[in-house]
Amino acid sequence: xxxxxxxxxxxxxxxxxxxxxxxxxxxxxxxxxxxxxxxxxxxxxxxxxxxxxxxxxxxxxxxxxxxxxxxxxxxxxxxxxxxxxxxxxxxxxxxxxxxxxxxxxxxxxxxxxxxxxxxxxxxxxxxxxxxxxxxxxxxxxxxxxxxxxxxxxxxxxxxxxxxxxxxxxxxxxxxxxxxxxxxxxxxxxxxxxxxxxxxxxxxxxxxxxxxxxxxxxxxxxxxxxxxxxxxxxxxx
Length: 236
Hints:
Blueprint: H1 3-16, E1 21-22, H2 24-40, E2 47-48, H3 50-66, H4 79-86, E3 90-103, H5 108-116, H6 119-126, E4 132-140, E5 143-157, E6 164-165, E7 173-175, E8 181-188, E9 194-198, E10 211-221, E11 224-235
Parallel strand pairs: 2-4, 6-11
Antiparallel strand pairs: 1-4, 3-5, 4-5, 5-7, 8-9, 8-10, 10-11
C-alpha cells in the first residue's frame, strides 16, 4: 500500500477507534517495567514517542481484528515500514520490536514474563542504543495483543516531509549531537535500491516515474559511517 493510502487509513483508525478495547493499564505497566529493567543495567530511561505509540497501536489492533500474531502484517509491512509512513520528521538508527499475545486474564507479572522470557525481547528492553519507545496493548476475543517498539532517534528534519515529494524538495537535517556529521541523503525503493542521492539540502535527480521511496540520511561519527532511516514518500 502506498504511503498516502496507509496514512489515511491509519488516521481513520486512530480517530474513530478500532473494534478493540485499549488496555492502557497494561501499557503503563510495561513502560514502567521497561524502565526498571533499564535502571537495573545502568541504561537510561526511554522517551515515549507519539509516532511509535501510534504504529504500535495500529499493529496491535490489526493483529486483534484479523486474528494473527507476527511482526509483519498480512500485507508484508514491517514495524519500521509503518513508522516511516506515520513519522514525517524523525531519523532513526537502531530499531527493534517486541510482540506477544496473552490471555485477557493474564496479570501484569505474567505479561511481563511473557515478554522477558524471549531472549530477543529481553535484549531489546535493555539495549543501550535505544532512546525512544512506543507501547500498545488491546483486548479482543479473550486475548491481549501487545506491541512495544524501540528506536534510536538520532535526528530529525527541520519540518515534516510531505507525503508527495517533487524535485527540489528541501530536506534540512538536525542531528541529535554535534559529534554527528551529515554526509549525504539518498532515496531508496521499498526493495532497497538507491534511486537518487546527493549532498545538498534539496532532493534532486529523482526518478521521472512516480513511485514509493524512503528517505535515508548517511552520517559519520568518530570516523565510522551509518545510515539513518527517515520518512516514506511518494515521488511525483
